[in-house]
Amino acid sequence: MRMYLRWEHGNHLVEWKDGGFVVQYPQGPMVFDTWTTLANHLRVSLPYRSYFRLGVQEKDTTPSFILDYQEDLLKEVETRLDLLLAEPLGIDLKAKQIDIRKLVLAGFGRKIYVGRHDPEDVIQEVFKGLLIRNSGTCPWDRKKSSFGHYVHMVASCILSNYHRKQKRSPDPVDPGEVDTDKGQWGKCEIEDSEDLLSTPTSHDLCSFVVSRSSGDSDLVRKVFPHLVEGCTVNEISVRVGISPGKVSKVMKTIRSHSAQWAKQNALTHMLPKTYNGV
Hints:
With 278 residues, the chain is of the alpha+beta class. The chain folds into 3 domains: 2-51, no CATH class; 93-191, no CATH class; 200-275. Helices cover 55% and strands 9% of the residues. The chain has 11 helices and 6 strands. It has helices at residues 35-42, 48-51, 64-85, 93-114, 119-134, 147-168, 193-197, 200-212, 217-229, 233-240, 244-264, and strands spanning 2-4, 13-17, 20-25, 28-32, 181-183, 186-188. The strands form 2 sheets. A 4-stranded antiparallel beta sheet has the order 1-2-3-4. A two-stranded antiparallel sheet has the order 5-6. α4 crosses α5 (119-134), α4 (93-114) packs across α6 (147-168) and α8 (200-212) crosses α11 (244-264). The chain starts with a strand and ends in a 14-residue tail after the last helix.
């Protein structure tokens, strides 16, 4: 009978003669009277039939270090493939300029008209704000929000700042002279949240949400202004002094009722896709 040692022992030919084993080493054959003596020589404790896999189904005998290398190589290939296929963050303003213009005019046309602002100036400010965010810390990520929702929130922040600047001074204001706040949508020149919340739209929305909230109206009033600013759950938790779990619950309530308010006011086109089922 012709057999072979396992790969870790050299994969040398083994012949079974007269009840003993003859191992054909390159330096010359070695004879072992019993399997015990050969097993001791190989430093293994497996039975004879198990070692030579006699009468059992063959398994993958690929060395473990080769399997580990193959697994590491596969992970590296998958990582590089993910990087190649990953969509870049931010908005291509050249490709999306028409859509952005429509979103701004549809969502804030009345506010621009009431404020007696030049629509083109406002739109250019929105383009500027989006461009800054593209290279900043909060570019648009399709995994976190829809395109329409992101543009609407950024435009709302920029229009509020633009309105305040135009109201206070006819001269251009140096952005470096205004305190900034980082929220979910990036840098937003907000000196305080009262100006942003004093707009008729935000006031009506807040009143609507509070009227629909049962038992947690005070929490809604506390969380609402910070949510409008674009703060995260943890940021709001620190500001108002309640647990992130409660903040998350209140935010869900606000968003749910905000979706109802938007539908009643024919603003469903500004709702994120995730709100369509509300």
